[in-house]
Amino acid sequence: MLRYIAKRLLLMIPVVIGMSVFVFAMMRLIPGDIAYVSLGAHATEEAVEAYRHRTGLDQPLHVQYLRWVGDFMSGEFGVSLTTGVSIREEMLRRLPVTLQLTAMAIILATLIGLPAGLIAARRPNSKMDLAVSTLGLTGLSLPNFWLGTMLVLLFAVQRHILPPSGFVRFTENPVDNLRLLVLPTISLAVVSASVILRMTRASAIEVMRQDYVTTAQAKGASDGVLMRRHILKNSLIPVVTVIGMEAGYIFGAAFLIEAVFLIPGVATWSLYAIQKRDYTVLQATTMVVLIVFMSINLAVDILYTYLDPRLRLGGREEG
Question: Partner of 43 for a Cys bridge, out of 39, 74, 130, 272, CB 3.0 to 4.6 A?
């Protein structure tokens, strides 16, 4: 297992290098000059040149790239071109916020989608199956930013049950932290829960048609035993893939939800950096998001080996 993880980590290195070049190049194609954005449209040429010299923007592109890579690999990430604040300190303050929101949303989506999909699969084409599938299709059709706005109007503005926006860290006040994240978590989880539901249902129905399930039924296995020992584990392979993909989707969708609920995470920071043409912040946040995606994929691959004996490492290497 450790050898497999090390191999996967080594394979990630050229991907990260390639993406760093791509991200660096794309940042330089963003319209607008950060010097004028920071100093104002009426800034003098002398002030603009002084700003570019101070921030290193007057250096050749390959020098800027190598300096940025060096800062990134050292964990410092450089400083913001607009605020002068250390990107590392700001990242350590904001990234846990987005990760907590993402983790809560994918957990909620799994807790809803997985059981609902199994319930629908137990009696295919029944009234229960139709009702659950209809709810899943409805959830799949709801844009998360629209759902978030509707939840705020219903539960915060009209009913005053939950706060409409804001954020308090869990270490400061756990109760307020969870109360403030209820609505954004639901907004992010609904679509993903619907996707997980549909995949779970389809996978479980396919497994139920297999010979070993029919044999277990003939031997008198109860529905509970049949679901636990034969159907659930064998139907999880494609579901785990979907959960991993949805975790990445939720992490990306947080860019909208954090703006709706005024949550000070990486997403809102990135949107501010886009408005200000802050290259260093955008480069750092983009690379961190990429590494999070790759880590999720690695975790999913490792989980495969525990769910299906046919996907053991030795078998993969031989293939």
Answer: 39
| Token output for 58 | 């007057």
Q: What is the DSSP string of 195-237?
A: HHHHHHHHHHHHHHTSHHHHHHHHTT--HHHIIIIIIIHHHHH
Domains of the chain: 93-275 (1.10.3720.10)
End-to-end Cα spacing for the chain: 17
Record the pTM: 0.81
User: Beta-carbon neighbour count of residue 116 at 10 Å?
Assistant: 22
Cα–Cα distances (Å) from 73 to 153, 194, 281, 290, 292, in that order, read 44, 39, 15, 15, 16
pLDDT by residue (tens digit) across 34-89?
Answer: 777 777 777 788 888 888 888 788 888 888 888 888 878 887 787 888 888 888 88
pLDDT tier for residue 108 given thresholds of 50, 70 and 90: very high
Which residues are bridge partners to 85 per DSSP? Answer: none
Cβ partners under 8 Å of residue 151, min gap 6 = 183, 186, 187
pLDDT tens, 250-301?
A: 888 887 898 889 899 888 888 888 877 788 888 888 888 888 888 888 888 7
- Reduced to 3 states (helix: H, G, I; strand: E, B; else coil), residue 319 is coil
